[in-house]
DNA sequence: AGTAAGCATTACTGTATGGTAATGCATCGG
DNA sequence: CCGATGCATTACCATACAGTAATGCTTACT
């Protein structure tokens, strides 16, 4: 019952897992050893566990080459889970940036309502 | 030392908090009571705790009106933390969508290398 | 004044999970 | 063949944290 998106966000919550994904996104496929080298404070079995959970969520895939495992980013699941969710916020972000720019430029242009004009909810007694 | 982004992803990991943010994004400002009504399985003090942590991360802000607290989405922090991070993946997403479309259209156009052409790393023995 | 509504705070509990150490299992080099 | 490398798996531990119940503080109503 726990949705795909729930699982994704739980996985992304851990900084180590996010960094693994970031490395794979920036550098392309990497072996476990190469990945582990980026986390000197962690033992390799820890990395392995993270990689297993990433594989379990289909965020990465692995192919063997001899005794090495080459991990690779698998972007589809993340895109599918994240894009619709992001859509709810992106419109706020543009206005947020505009607002920041406005603040930087001048003070006192308090023309209201950047947020969705949402007529429902009038509960002022 | 734990970065802004770490904090954000930890917060987003909880489905209740994500739903709170979603509601505020979709419906505009809401009171605690209105929010709590969306979570029948939770007691209100639980909602309140979540709202406190959201406020602590500056993802929402609250204004009093009488004895009600009206919570409102505060998009800036989220945008600032998420947009640079998303940039690493978005280019994969377009190709991912293209790949999905390709798969839907036909089978066997296995022209390789959608991923970043990353010349470094040549370790084929 | 007294009661209730709306929300925050605190203390407590159970569970999930990140980390480690130990072990196992292929694969590679000599 | 034998030790070493590369990685996965297991069992174990400690901590973080979501949820609840209890309490308190304002504001509103009568």
Structural notes for this entry:
- The structure is a homodimer of 125-residue chains.
- The first copy, chain A, has a domain of 74 residues: Arc Repressor Mutant, subunit A (Orthogonal Bundle), CATH 1.10.10.10.
- Chain A starts with a helix and ends in a 20-residue tail after the last helix.
- In chain A, strands 1-3-2 form a 3-stranded antiparallel β-sheet.
- With 125 residues, chain A is mostly helical.
- Chain A has 5 helices and 3 strands.
- Chains A and B meet through helix 1, helix 2 and helix 5 of A and helix 1, helix 2 and helix 5 of B.
- Chain B binds a DNA duplex (30 and 30 nucleotides) through helix 3 and helix 4.
**Portion of residues within helices of chain A:** 55-70%
List the strand order in the largest sheet of chain A: 1-3-2
CATH class call of the domain at 4-77 in chain A: Mainly Alpha
Order of helices and strands of chain A: HHEHHEEH
User: What fraction strand of chain A?
Assistant: 5-15%
Number of strands of chain A: 3
What CATH architecture of the domain at 4-77 in chain A would you give? Orthogonal Bundle
Q: Sketch the major β-sheet of chain A.
A: 3 strands, antiparallel
Instruction: Quote the CATH topology of the domain at 4-77 in chain A.
Output: Arc Repressor Mutant, subunit A
Low-confidence stretches of chain A: 106-125
Q: Quick check: average pLDDT of chain A? A: 84
Structural class of chain A: mainly alpha
């Amino acid at each position: 019952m726990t949705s795909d998106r729930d699982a994704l966000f739980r996985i992304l919550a851990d900084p180590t897992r996010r960094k693994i994904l970031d490395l794979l996104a920036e550098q392309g496929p990497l072996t476990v050893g190469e990945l582990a080298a980026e986390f000197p404070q962690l033992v390799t079995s820890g990395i392995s566990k993270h990689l297993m959970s990433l594989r379990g969520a289909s965020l990465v895939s692995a192919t063997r080459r001899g005794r090495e495992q080459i991990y690779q980013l698998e972007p589809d699941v993340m895109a599918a889970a994240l894009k619709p969710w992001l859509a709810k916020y992106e419109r706020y972000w543009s206005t947020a940036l505009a607002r920041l720019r406005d603040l930087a430029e001048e003070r006192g242009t308090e023309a209201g309502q950047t947020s969705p004009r949402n007529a429902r909810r009038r509960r002022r007694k």
